[in-house]
């Protein structure tokens, strides 16, 4: 604690460019603590050792920690010291005939193995309580008598924090058009995230290809070209799905393959190629079938509106790939819709006109043909999916920012806890710190402990300090 105080004053002196400094003196002995005074009550400690601690401070050196030989005997070799020669600077130290030392450096900064076992035990029990609460069981009553009041207060604070974040946006943190973070480091970290549901979503696209092939075979006759295209698409998408699962089910695949797949999932460019190839491969059988069907007589492709259903499923397959950015999805969906509209209005014009003559009424056919209606419907679907994908990515990025902020706050809390424990270790003996900080006490236990130990003479370290060259 004394070393930390000296370091803090040194930082203030460097920041303010002033001559302020601090002497710290420490002596260990017996004290009598109590409340003194009849009109103005004051709590203080009194003893000869207290006066000697003040002398240790007065006879110290600016910017150093000055300790007595009794304090040095309690350090157990955890600090490197040099002779302090306090008797040359203070008459009371000289009259007491004690040796003094100056702390030179820290040999053993933090004691290990004191609260670690109890802390791990408490963390496991807290996780068990939280798990039982999430499963819908009765609210846990706390550890060692800590009631539901503290946990209810925590739940209220958590709820208030979530309500405060309701309606939060990434404005000021990301570009409005591309949704890229303005901080390049943050953008790199977000792009390197691996999605746990990625293999399942890729398998869903493989399932779309398989079901499209089955539906195609039920409605129409598969020619050789379309059959080969569907067989190749099913095989390739299935293999890609298996590779995607290798990054999750690592025990079932070769380690080198697992490492390669996990690496590709963290590289944005490779991930874009990886996922785009799945959609393009899934679209090849439909394009091949449409190229082979120019009229309704030479190839069984009636009703042609089935192509509209196929392209819609492909668009949904693109949407569920949350690993892709919304701009990449829009470009891919625009490409698919453009190819569909060109094939519908140019290459398969006669097929759709024949469908209109057989199915659609004359009044509606003359006003809005099916080949144009399908293109308009796909454009509407494109705009709807665009806003859905954009909202999904905004939510994902917002959750990422919240997680980063939560991790930063957790690190700050951990650092504060470490400093507090360091302070406690420097003030209290290890067995006392373990007794009082290694478990949660109830209010009655704390009250009884205070009643039992109040106004009791004890042995303690007395620290005195003085600020020099300080003025407001």
Describe the structure.
With 472 residues, the chain is an alpha+beta fold. It is 62% helix and 10% strand. It has helices at 2-16, 48-58, 69-73, 91-96, 116-134, 148-164, 184-191, 198-219, 224-246, 255-266, 268-292, 306-319, 326-347, 349-358, 362-367, 370-427, 430-437, 443-453, and strands spanning 21-36, 42-46, 65-68, 79-83, 100-106, 458-468. A hairpin with a 5-residue loop joins strand 1 and strand 2. Helix 8 packs antiparallel against helix 9 (224-246), helix 8 packs antiparallel against helix 12 (306-319) and helix 12 (306-319) packs antiparallel against helix 13. The longest helix is centred in the C-terminal third of the chain and has 58 residues, at 370-427. It is elongated.
Number of strands: 6
Work out the strand percent: 5-15%
Largest sheet entry = 6 strands, mixed
Number of helices: 18
Give the helix level as a range of percent. Answer: 55-70%
Over all CA atoms, what is the radius of gyration? 37 Å
Please tell me the overall pLDDT. 76
Shape: elongated
Alpha-carbon distance between the two ends: 25 Å
What letter string, H or E per element, gives the SSE order?
HEEHEHEHEHHHHHHHHHHHHHHE
**Low-pLDDT regions:** 112-148, 453-459
What structural class results from the helix and strand content?
Answer: alpha+beta
